[in-house]
């Protein structure tokens, strides 16, 4: 819980709203679970992310990935296919044709923001495989240096640093599942680059950062956790964080785009809708989702090659509502 406040560069983080939503919610959840419709009697305050007018990431944007620590090839494929699917043309997959919304249709919510959104391309992927004890312990400050060293910032790219399950990051799990931020680069610090970090929570806090594929920390009863669409609680959870952070990065890359609340602890495109994945969601219930008949896995979007994902709701600036797929 080392929450160092930095004045020079705002640390924009993905607040762990799941835990907040669950902890005090036990009686309310019980009521809601017995009669979900009750929730509609209480109209929630509309969430409004104010447009602060700063530069957004639009046009062609490359996402480069730095896998920090061991990710199996199958795990990297889950992540890479997700990023590749974001701006892919909608090609119906024979097995899921007309059944599920595409990952690209999920990402299109970001094109409703000023500037028309970003067309994402997967760029370089690197992996730092063998880490000594010291290298397995990081603070968010390390990611700035890593992103800069990787040189990924050239040409309007986002660097995504993804840490393996055994890498400890201060504040990971305690208050966040990942962060996005920006830093200055270039000879005179004139150019800026955006970067993000998300961790594989499998060993450290699956209940917080891989919900609903794992029980929330305070949850002792109720529905069992959902089966993750790619069979990997940690990486399917990581994709939820990555998806949320990418949406936050393009719509609020430099801390003066779309957000609600404090600049240092903003609610952004996805965090404003934390815990919501499908229609009818309420605290502790992710909402109505699709189910894979063969595996029992829950998902709400399909990417290239028919790969399934569970992606968070995004705030829609045209309706001021959280937009769910399907
Ligand atoms: C973006 O990429 C597409 C496809 O590669 C290309 O046709 C287009 O010209 C690019 N746009 C810009 C502004 O660079
Ligand atoms: C993380 O940052 C600290 C402080 O700058 C530094 O001492 C440490 O070597 C960095 N760790 C890695 C793995 O880069």
From TrEMBL:
Q: Where is the signal peptide?
A: 1-32
Q: Which UniProt keywords apply?
A: Apoplast, Secreted, Signal
What is the top-level taxon of the source organism?
Eukaryota
Localization: Secreted, Extracellular space, Apoplast
Q: Which GO terms describe its cellular component?
A: apoplast
| Entries under PANTHER family matching the protein | OS06G0219900 PROTEIN (PTHR31279:SF19), PROTEIN EXORDIUM-LIKE 5 (PTHR31279)
Q: Which family does it belong to?
A: Belongs to the EXORDIUM family.
Q: What is this protein called?
A: Protein EXORDIUM-like 2
Question: What is the species of this protein?
Answer: Brachypodium distachyon (Purple false brome)
Name the gene that codes for it.
LOC100844224
């Amino acid at each position: 819980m080392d929450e160092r406040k930095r004045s020079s560069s705002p640390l924009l983080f993905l607040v762990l709203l799941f835990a907040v939503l669950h902890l005090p919610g036990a009686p309310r959840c019980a009521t809601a679970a017995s009669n979900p419709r009750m929730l509609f009697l209480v109209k929630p305050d509309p969430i409004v992310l104010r447009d602060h007018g700063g530069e957004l990431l639009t046009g062609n944007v490359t996402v480069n990935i730095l896998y920090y620590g061991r990710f199996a090839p199958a795990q990297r494929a889950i992540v890479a296919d997700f990023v590749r699917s974001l701006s892919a043309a909608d090609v119906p997959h024979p097995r899921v044709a007309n059944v599920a919304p595409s990952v690209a249709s999920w990402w299109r919510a970001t094109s409703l923001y000023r500037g028309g959104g970003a067309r994402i391309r997967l760029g370089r992927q690197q992996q730092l495989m063998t880490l000594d004890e010291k290298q397995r312990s990081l603070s968010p400050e390390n990611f700035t240096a890593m992103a800069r060293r990787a040189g990924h910032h050239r040409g309007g790219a986002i660097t995504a640093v993804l840490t393996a399950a055994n890498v400890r990051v201060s504040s990971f799990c305690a208050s966040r599942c990942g962060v996005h931020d920006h830093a200055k680069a270039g000879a005179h610090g004139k150019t800026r680059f955006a970067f993000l970090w998300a961790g594989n929570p499998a060993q450290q806090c699956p209940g917080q950062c891989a919900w609903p594929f794992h029980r929330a920390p305070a949850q002792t009863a109720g529905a069992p956790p959902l089966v993750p669409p790619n069979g990997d609680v940690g990486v399917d959870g990581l994709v939820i964080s990555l998806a949320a952070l990418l949406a936050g990065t393009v719509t609020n890359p430099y801390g003066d785009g779309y957000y609600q609340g404090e600049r240092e602890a903003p609610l952004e495109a996805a965090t404003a809708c934390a815990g919501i994945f499908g229609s009818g969601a309420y605290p502790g219930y992710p909402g109505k989702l699709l189910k894979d008949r063969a595996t029992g896995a829950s998902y709400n979007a399909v990417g290239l090659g028919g790969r399934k994902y569970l992606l968070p709701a995004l705030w829609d600036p045209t309706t001021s509502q959280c937009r769910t797929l399907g």
